[in-house]
User: Which sequence fits this backbone?
């Protein structure tokens, strides 16, 4: 865990792939408890530490995660996330067009993807449709080509809605599964079990101070090898 932004009301840290944000049936220590322990030690708090979870990242995804340090911030951040006032940018590595499937235009322009997503809770997977089906939810994102590695294309993605596995499902639906994402059609896994999706940037108006905040995740590993 690395702290990239911190004040009295908000803390933003980086999550490693494989970590869970909030406790689940696995019993693994969640990132939220690691952050609580950091706050308790740093500020020598004798009593329990308040920490509110305002959003989540899938377990195999790395990057920025925001938490609320006060109840006032938690209530306001919950509203901001619900209303789309926290702007999140992701980086995704997808296969190049060598198999004729992933046809993304390297034209510097932003393109919009719209689908209707249906979540299958038993499979922990979402399915994309080009029309509304019963129980589905509309999903919208924008993407552009932001760089390349020797074998992959880097897409920058802006989420306009927040659906289950939205980026993973929508990119796969256009024939561009994320590197390492076997669940959504990647040919092979990453050695560490991660998928090559990074929560790269957050931009928002602070819920209490009203300052304009922009935070970016530090680049490590394969992300440092991307060429624009």
Assistant:
């Amino acid at each position: 865990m690395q702290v990239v932004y911190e004040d009295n009301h908000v803390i933003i840290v980086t999550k490693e792939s494989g970590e869970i944000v909030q406790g689940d049936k696995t019993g693994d220590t969640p990132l939220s408890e690691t952050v609580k322990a950091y706050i308790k030690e740093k500020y020598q708090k004798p009593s329990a530490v308040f920490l509110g979870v305002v959003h989540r990242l899938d377990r195999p995804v790395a990057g920025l995660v925001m938490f609320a340090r006060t109840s006032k911030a938690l209530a306001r951040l919950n509203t901001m996330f619900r209303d789309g006032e926290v702007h999140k940018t992701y980086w995704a590595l997808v296969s190049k067009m060598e198999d004729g499937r992933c046809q993304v235009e390297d034209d510097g322009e932003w393109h919009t993807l719209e689908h209707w997503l249906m979540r299958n809770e038993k499979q922990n997977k979402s399915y994309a449709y080009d029309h509304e089906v019963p129980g589905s939810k509309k999903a919208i994102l924008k993407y552009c080509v932001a760089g390349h590695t020797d074998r992959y294309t880097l897409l920058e993605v802006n989420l306009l809605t927040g659906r289950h596995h939205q980026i993973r499902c929508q990119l796969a639906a256009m024939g561009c599964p994320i590197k390492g994402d076997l669940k959504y059609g990647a040919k092979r896994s990453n050695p560490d079990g991660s998928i090559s999706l990074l929560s790269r940037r957050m931009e928002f108006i602070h819920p209490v101070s009203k300052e304009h905040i922009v935070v970016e995740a530090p680049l490590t590993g394969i992300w440092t090898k991307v060429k624009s």
User: Anything to note?
Assistant: The first strand starts at residue 2 and ends at 6. The two ends are 27 Å apart (CA to CA). Helices lie at 31-42, 71-82, 166-173. The chain has a mean pLDDT of 92.
